[in-house]
Amino acid sequence: MHVVRLAPWIVLVGACTPAIEVPASGPPDGGWQTGSYAIEHDGRRRTFLLDVPDDLQPGAPLVLVIHGYTGQATDLRDYTGFDAISKEHGFVAVYPQGTRDARGQTFFDVGYDFHTERVDDVGFLRALADRLVVDLEVDADSVFATGHSNGGDMSYVLACQTDAWVRAIAPVSGTMMADNACTPSRRTSVMEVHGTADDITYFEGDPENVDGWGAYLSTNEVMDFWVDQLDLELEETSALPDLDRDDGSTVALTRWSTAVDDEEVRLYLVEDGGHDWPGAWGNGDLQTSEAIWDFFEAHRP
Q1: How many angstroms separate the CA atoms of 205 and 114, rounded?
Q2: In a domain? residue 118
């Protein structure tokens, strides 16, 4: 059987979860508020969730939080807890919803081999971010992207654009396709969270395309790519405290940086960790969502 990147709440290949219920297209008369919305892009009605703090200040950051293959924006919002984090720290979080492929599964188009249909997800995410930047007066230079699995892969695709517009990315269980033409136009800092026992997005990659997604890089190869892109040299590794001795895994942080610029690459390596979102399930030593926001906050202009 072909392996699919199942979210933890889905147990059957081909199972369909309900689509987001969208009460209105575009912002209400009072402007964008926390809720569900839709916009038109490339002939498609694209839906998304939005968390807008009540006391949002001009120039606040915007964080795109992108779900995995077969996933739903609603579930991702629930298990990451970014709604509470955005309220606490005063940034806008947006959770775009993927379209459905020929199998009826939700996805973002990063070039998997079995996806013959083409969806302009890069254009959709750019158009969505651009509109929110203008309408909510958030900082166009403080747009960040994170996501799980397929959503993590999509984060890398955004950073690889020749007109890249995300300032930093933080994929979780993400990777880059081996044939991905990555020619980033800006110095984008990267943070990856990845388990060595991930049985969906293999830590060692899949160079021979055994699972049919298409050949993709190992986590170390992905880190090396971005370290080279940023001309980083300084490397340091430290172990996180083993706060949960019953989770069967530990976390080490490796950080590459320079003595001059503030760009960096971070890898939270979860030894014996799976295809998880640490802090939500799996490893209990790392609060992934908080670590992601701390990383983005450190790279605001």
Answers
A1: 17
A2: yes
- Residue 260: the pLDDT is 77
Contacts of 229 (CB under 8 A, 6+ apart): 184, 187, 188
Half-sphere CA count of 97, side-chain side, radius 13 A: 25
Give the sign of the dihedral formed by CA 126, CA 175, CA 69, CA 84.
Answer: negative
**What is the rounded distance in angstroms from the CA atom of residue 193 to the CA atom of residue 221?**
14
HSE, side-chain direction, 13 A CA sphere, residue 248: 9
d(CA 180, CA 185): 15
| Helix, strand and coil in the chain, % to nearest 5 | 20, 25, 55
Predicted TM-score (pTM) of the model is: 0.91
- Enumerate residue ranges in the chain where pLDDT < 50: 1-24
Question: Could you count the other beta carbons within 10 Å of the beta carbon of residue 94?
Answer: 26
Query: 108, 150 in Cβ contact below 8 A?
Result: yes
Residue 54's CATH number: 3.40.50.1820
pLDDT digits (tens, 9 = 90+) for 18-47: 334 444 456 766 789 999 999 999 999 999
Contacts of 9 (CB under 8 A, 6+ apart): 75
Whether 146 maps to a domain, the answer reads: yes
Domain holding 293, by residue range, is 35-298
Cα–Cα distance, 80 to 85 (Å, whole number):
9
d(CA 123, CA 144): 16
DSSP 49-65: EEE--TTPPTT--EEEE
Provide the residue type at 262 as one letter.
D
Under a CB-based contact definition with an 8 Å cutoff, are residues 6 and 70 in contact? yes
Measure the CA–CA gap between 266 and 40, rounded to whole angstroms.
36
